[in-house]
Amino acid sequence: MTAAPNRITVAGTTFLQGGTGGLPPDCPLVCLHGIGGDATSFAAQIDELADRGRRVLSWDMPGYGGSAPLSKMGFETLCDRLCAALDALGLEQVVLAGQSIGGMIAQEMAIRHPPRIAGLVLIATVPAFGGRDDKFRDEFLAARLAPLDRGESMESLAADAIPAVMGNNADADAVADAVAAMAAIPEAAYRQVLATLVTFNRREDQHRITCPCLLIAGGEDDNSPVRVMEKMASRLPDAALQVIETVGHLVNSEAPEACNTAIEAFLRRLAGEEQPRDRTEANA
Fold first, then answer.
1. Neighbours of 67 (CB within 10 A)
2. Residue range(s) defining the domain that contains residue 200
3. Which residues have a Cβ under 8 Å from the Cβ of 107 and sit 6 or more positions away?
4. Rounded to whole angstroms, how far apart are CA atoms 92 and 89?
5. How many whole angstroms separate alpha carbon 195 and alpha carbon 261?
6. What pLDDT digit, counting tens, does each position of 96-144 carry?
7. Does any domain span residue 1?
8. How many domains does the chain have?
9. 30 strand-pairing partners
10. Dist CA 76 CA 265 (whole Å)
11. Is position 236 within any domain?
């Protein structure tokens, strides 16, 4: 077994880190969590992939965990913060794995900084937020913020929100870990990231993501449905889709073994160790 992941802070950004290998070793897997998570959301990926010789880092988004907040947040400033951290780590190129809004940041990085991205693992994410008008956005924000506006705590919000986005058969420990991660988010940071989420729209820019991509969808995910991710995969120049049927939105936490197997195969492909997959595969 490899050593337990260590926590490091560079350029105002905190990471959990494990393993030493890469594609080569200076091209690690960097993981970007969702709006209700933190660096621990990819703990299973750090543990298992580090055991397989991979170097894996998982960030705390600005304002989360030990990471400094951004005075003004948008996808451009999120990418700037990530690039500054990669520079401080001496990493010229990485593979990004992003879940939900983390997958949006990963797409944005591939469009804004293509030489830095060797590949993308896009987990339970979409090419653009919601509908094509302001009504959907406004209703979404109102619903997500209503409990906080009523004076409820992040702990109370997490206890309701997390089970609702996970699959029907989610492991109790995985649910508890996800609830704890969301409960620890500062309310101001959560509000700021929600306001950023609803601005994402790269629907017409998918052709600009030219690096190899692995998309991983949960069969019970209503936030990033399989049909949307199938369409997304079809519009990316070099993409394969993996569907894990019995999980919800927190795919990498709910089905870590299946997710890690898919990610490891993708990393081996990037290293030239195996042939490209079919565009669509399914796991029960």
1. 22
2. 6-283
3. 98, 120, 122, 125, 127, 202, 209
4. 9
5. 34
6. 999 999 999 999 999 999 999 999 999 999 999 987 678 989 999 999 9
7. no
8. 1
9. 57, 96
10. 31
11. yes
